[in-house]
């Protein structure tokens, strides 16, 4: 089984195994989901802060990742996964709306990684990806 697929299927084990060994491979598993769901990675990870964002955004500088909400930096780290954790959690903590351009990606992580089930209808492409991953 390819390492990327294994990371998606076993995120907790991936944290323990890959983070100290190969952080690039671990972070790639975050970056590949939007691509697989035909969403743009730049809606999650940006090079510059966009004005009037009502949802969290991860801004990448030269050596750090910042999680910004409404132009305020709520966290700064050198690790993409830590920034993603805060990004995702802030949607629930602050009861923010899910950005429409990342809806499928966030739905995937909500259902597969965090095992949060709600009454919202799941996108067919998310269901198809989950089905494909369940075969490995």
What does this structure look like?
By secondary structure, this protein is α+β, with helices and mostly antiparallel strands. The chain has one domain (3-134). The chain is built from 6 helices and 4 strands, in the order H-H-H-E-E-E-E-H-H-H. It has helices spanning 3-9, 11-21, 23-36, 80-93, 103-113, 124-134; strands at 45-46, 57-60, 65-69, 72-77. The longest helix has 14 residues, at 23-36.
Please compute the radius of gyration using only Cα atoms.
Answer: 15 Å
Write down the overall mean pLDDT: 77
pLDDT < 50 runs, ≥5 residues = none
Q: Briefly note the structural class of the backbone.
A: alpha+beta
Keywords:
6 helices; globular; 136 residues; single chain; 4-stranded mixed sheet; alpha+beta
List the helices and strands and how they pair.
Blueprint: H1 3-9, H2 11-21, H3 23-36, E1 45-46, E2 57-60, E3 65-69, E4 72-77, H4 80-93, H5 103-113, H6 124-134
Parallel strand pairs: 1-2
Antiparallel strand pairs: 2-3, 3-4
Helix pairs in contact: 1-2, 1-3, 2-3, 5-6
